[in-house]
Amino acid sequence: NAGVTQTPKFQVLKTGQSMTLQCAQDMNHNSMYWYRQDPGMGLRLIYYSASEGTTDKGEVPNGYNVSRLNKREFSLRLESAAPSQTSVYFCASIRRGVVTDTQYFGPGTRLTVL
Amino acid sequence: GENVEQHPSTLSVQEGDSAVIKCTYSDSASNYFPWYKQELGKGPQLIIDIRSNVGEKKDQRIAVTLNKTAKHFSLHITETQPEDSAVYFCAGGTSGTYKYIFGTGTRLKVLA
Fold it and tell me: Who contacts B97 (Cβ-Cβ below 8 Å, separation ≥6)?
């Protein structure tokens, strides 16, 4: 069980370039999330997918698009990167239980936009 | 919408002492409050959580308390060890809404 995997681990882009961050989970979870983490800001939700075939905006969706390719994979796309998108990006999936909802996070992608 | 505030932003304790991190939330509909530990270079990991129908939950050296009236919840770590050094995040949300709002994090340093 690899859990939640993300690629790439590091990326440097120039302003205006595009790229896709990949995320996959092997735990058969229905719901998946994309967060960004900035110093002093905690984790902020960009987009989430409650189930395969659905996606919804979170707190900070501007400048991003997502695709829930199948139950396992949830990608995040930056169409025209801006320096304000320099951040660490985390993908997560959630196991819903009767009592506890457990989010499992990937190792993160550190993105720098010059 | 929900807003979660977390204090302090940094906390240093001597090994063996206790550490307390506090969070407040704004949405009275929130009913689930997890705590995460993030080690350097890794993603956050759930360490303990509490639901609004419970006032306290304990797991070995870690405990969480919830005061629904005051809308605050706290993480207590007893007998701290160097490996407890990390960034801790609280979060709050409502079951079934799929959204959890995170606090801004507390960097805990346990001094040997």
Answer: none
